[in-house]
Amino acid sequence: MAYLEARGLGRDFPGVTALDGVDLSVELGRTHILAGENGAGKSTLVKILTGADRATRGSIAIDGQNPLDHPDLFRKIAYVPQELSLFPDVSVAENLFMPFDRTGHGGLVNRRRMEAEAQEYLDRFGIEAKPSDMVRHISVPDQQLLQIARASTNRDMKVLILDEPTSALTAREVERVFRVIRSFLDRDHAIIFISHKMEEVFEIGQDYTVLRNGRKVDAGRVAEIDEAALIRAMSGREVAIDEHFRPDCPVTDTVMQVDNLSGPLFRDVSFTLKRGEILGFAGLVGAGRSELMQTIFGYRKASGGHVRVDGRDWRLNDTAASVAGGMLYLSEERKAHGIFPLLSLRENIGLSVLSLTTGATGIDSRKERGIVARVIGDYGIRASGPGQRIATLSGGNQQKAIIGRAMATTPRILIFDEPTKGIDIRTKAEIYRIMKRLAEEGVGIILISSEMTELRRCASRIITMHGGRLTGSFDAASTETETLVGAIFATGTGAGGSTPEDAEASHVN
Amino acid sequence: MSTEHSAQTRRPPALTLLMRNPLAGVFVALVAIFAISAVISPYFLSGYNMSVIARGLAFVGLVTIAQSSLMILGELDLSLGTIGGLCGVVSGMLMVQAGLPAPMALILALCLGLALGFLNGLLVTVLGLHSLVLTIGTAGIYGGAILVLTKGVAITGIPAGIQFLGRGDVLGVPVPFLIMLAVLAIALFLSLKTPMGRYMYAIGNNPAAARMLGIRVDRIRLLVFTLAGMLSALAGLLMVARLGTAQPSIGQTWVLAPIAAAVIGGVATTGGVGSPLGAIFGAGIIAIIENIIVLFGVSPYWQGVVSGVIVVLAISFDALSRRYLRRDGA
Q1: Beta-ladder partners of A465
Q2: For residues A436, A439, A441 and A443, what is the CA-based torsion angle, rounded to 10 degrees?
Q3: N or C terminus of chain A with fewer C-beta within 10 Å?
Q4: φ, ψ at A224 (rounded to 5°)
C-alpha cells in the first residue's frame, strides 16, 4: 500500500473543472514526478494534498487514514513552492525555524541554541552559508536548499513536494540540489517532484504521473517510458524535441556594437550583434549577463564604455530613450519587472502601444481593443477575456502577454532574459518560433539562458560569460557542449572561440 | 449532484457586478445613504441644505482629487492640507498687506502651491525618500510657516470682489462646487484617456516594470506631486474667498478626510487601483453623514468617530468581498 493515495480526485470551480478523476499513489523511499503543462491541474492537486484546498469529489489517504478526519496527517506532507518564500533580511537560522514553534525552546528565542541546531540542518543539506548570515546575502542555490531544509524541520514530514526547485539554478547547482534530495530519500521519506525539464525528470525520477487538462493521462515507472512518450502524454501531441530554431537567413550587417562597457558585476565587455542572428549568452547565475543587458537597456548605470546601434551612439542610463529607440528588454523576473498585477490583460498590453492608440482626443479605446485582441490571438494567450486581471493568468500566458506587448511596438532589438523560465514545453516551442521569426525579419535578438539545450536549439552564436567578463564566442552549430561548459566555468578549455584578448585586439585596429 | 453544487455557488449577477466594480459599490452606498438621509430628516432635501453640503464638499473634494491621484501612483502627501492653508494665508497677505490686485495675488498663491508640491516631489524622486515620512516633515514646515506669518491671527479685509468664488452661486449651484466638478472632469479625462493616466496606474502597480517599459517614472511622480500641490492651493484660496478672511486654521481638516474618502471610494493605499471619481463618492458619503449629524443636533465632536467607523466598515467590506470572490476561484 502506498503511503500517499489519492483516488478519483475532482475539484470544480464555477464554470471550470480544474481536476477530474485524478489518482496518485506515492511510495516511501521513491521520487515521484508530477508532470504536466501549465494549467494541467498540478497546483490544484498539490493544494488538495497539502490540505490547503478540498476536493469536490474523491478521497485521499495518508498512511491509510483519511486526513479530513485526522487533520494532523496533513503535517506529514510538506510543500516547497517554486518561488523563493524566505525572509531576505532575517538570518538563516531564524528562517529555518520560523515561526519558532518547532524549536522546543518554549516561548523565548534563544539565538545561540537556535543557531547551533540550525548548523545541523545546514550540514545535512549541504548549505554553505552560516546560521547567522542574512538570507539576502547567501547564494541562490543555498536559498533553494534552505527552503527544503525549512520544510524538513517539520519532524512529522514524510512526503516532500518540490515545485520546480531548480528553475533558478544552473546545471552544476542543480547537481548539488539533486545530491541533497537523494541523500534525503534514504531516510524513509518520499518526494513529489514537479518539473518541466526532461533531463531532470529522467535523472531523479522513479515513478511518474502525468496530468493534462485536469485529468490523469499516464502513470508508471520512469524507467519504462522515454522522453518522446512523456512529452506526448503531457502535450497530447507530438512535439519534436530535437527540432532547432536557429534563424534560416543570412547574417548581414551589424545592428549593435558594444565597446568596453563596464557596469555593476561586469567589466570591459565588447561584442557585436548582427542582423539575422539570435545571439545567445551563456553563464552561471551571477556571471553578470542580466546586469550587462540591463545596463545596455539603461535600467542600470554604466560606469564606462559605449554602445552603438545602427552606427549611431546609443544613449545609456535612460530606459525611456531605449524604448523610444526600439530596444526592449524582457526580464526573467516576470513578477518584479514585467506585469502590472492589478491591471487587466488589456491594460497591461495597452500600456506599451499608447503611442499608437493616442490621438488628439486621448486614447482611442476602439483602436486599443483591436490591437489587444490581435496580440491575444496572435500569441495564443488563454484568458477568459481582455478584462481578466493579469495576475490570475498562468505564468506561460503572462509571458506570452509580455512578449506580445513588446512585439506590438515593432522593436529593432529585443533582449530575452530567460524567456522560458517555468514555462511548459509547448509554450516554450511557441516562444522559440517567435524569436526565430523575428530574427529572420531583421530584429536583433539576444537570448540569455541558463539551459544549455535552449541555447543550442535557438542561438546562432553563443557568447559565454564568467565573473563579469566574456570568456568566448562560439558558433552554436559547430561547437561541442563541453567546450561551452568549459568557457562558462572559465576552466580554459574554451579554445574553440575567440578569447577576450582577441576581441580587444580587434577593437584596437 | 453537480447541479446541486453549482446552485450553491451561483449568486445574483448584480451582487457580483457590485463586488467586482468598486466604483459601482461606492456609488450604490452613496445613493443609499442619500436616500436614507432624505427619509429620516425633513430638512435634508431642502435647497439650502443641499447647497451647504455641496459647498462643503467642494473644498475637501479638491484635495481628495489630489490625494487620490497620488495614492493611485503609490504615494501619499500629508502636507496637502497645510499647503492649502499656507497658500490661502499668503494670498490674504498679498491682497491685504501688500495691496496686490486680487487676480495677481491668487495666481501667485497658486504658483506657491505648485512650487511646494514640486518641492515634495523633488525630494521624493531625487533623494528617493518615502513620501509618507517626508511629508510628515514638510507638513510641519508649511504648517509652522502659517503660524509664523500670521502669528495665529486671521487676516481680514479680503476684497469683496473675489468672495463670489467662494460664496457665489450659478443657477443655484455653489461656485466652488462647480470648480471642483470641472477639476474632477479634467482629472478623470487625464486618468482614463491619456498616457499619463495609464502611466500613473502602471507606476502604482509596479514601478520597476514601468521603468522597464520605458515610462519616465520620476517625471510622472514629480508632475502629480506638483499638480496636487496646486489643487490644494486652489482649495485654500476658495476657502479664503468663502470665509472672507484668511484663517490660519484653513486646511487642518484636509489631511485625513481625503485619505479616508479615497479609501472608501476604492483607492488602495498600496497604489495602482481606484479612481478619483470613487474618491469623490467617498467624500460625498462622509459629507452627507456629517451633515446628518448636524441636522440631528448631535454633538459635532462625534463627527470624527463616525467618519472613522465608515472607513473601517468600507475597508472591511472590501476585504471580505475580495475573499468571497477568491474562494470561488474567480
Answers
A1: A470
A2: 140
A3: C
A4: -100, 10
A283, A291 Cβ separation under 8 angstroms: no
The answer to whether residues B92 and B150 touch, using CB atoms and an 8 Å cutoff, is no
- Complex ipTM > 0.85: no
Using CA atoms, how far residue B211 sits from A321, A445, B24, B80, B311, in Å, is: 11, 21, 32, 27, 33
| Residue B4 belongs to some domain of the structure | no
- Look-up of cell digits 493568468: A393
Residues of B in contact with A320 (CB under 8 A): 214-216
**Which chain A residues contact residue B195 at CB under 8 A?**
354-355, 358, 363
**pLDDT tens per residue, range A132-164:** 899 888 888 888 888 888 888 877 888 999 888
Quote the number of domains for chain B: 1
- Chain A residues closer than 8 Å to B209 by CB: 336-340
Q: Which of B196, B205, B220, B269 to mutate to test the interface with A (most CBs of A within 10 A)?
A: B205
Query: DSSP states of A283-304 as a string?
Result: --TTSSHHHHHHHHHTSS---E
Domain A242-326+411-509 indexed as CATH 3.30.565.10: no
**Contact call for B213 and A362, based on CB within 8 A:** no
Domain contains B188? yes
| Residue scoring higher pLDDT (A97 or A168) | A97
pLDDT at A500: 42
Q: Counting beta carbons within 10 angstroms of the beta carbon of residue A487, is it exposed (0 to 12), middle (13 to 18) or buried (19 or more)?
A: buried
Locate CATH 3.40.50.300 in chain A.
Answer: 4-235, 242-326+411-509
- Least Cα separation, residue A474 to chain B (angstroms): 30
CATH 2.40.320.10 describes domain A4-235: no
**B29 assigned to some structural domain:** no
Question: How close B243 comes to chain A (CA, Å)?
Answer: 38
- pLDDT at site A426: 73
pLDDT, tens only, B178-232: 999 999 999 999 999 999 999 999 999 999 999 999 999 999 999 999 999 999 9
Average pLDDT, chain B: 88
User: Which residues of chain B does A361 touch, with a Cβ-Cβ cutoff of 8 Å?
Assistant: 193
Q: Which three cell numbers stand for residue A40?
A: 494541467
Residue-wise pLDDT for B99-119, tens only, equals 899 999 999 999 999 999 999
Q: Which domain holds residue B188?
A: 49-253
**Position B42 in a domain:** no
Q: In chain B, which residue's Cα lies nearest the Cα of A56?
A: B5
What single letter denotes the amino acid at residue A329? Y
In which residue are the cell numbers 516547497 written?
A: A80
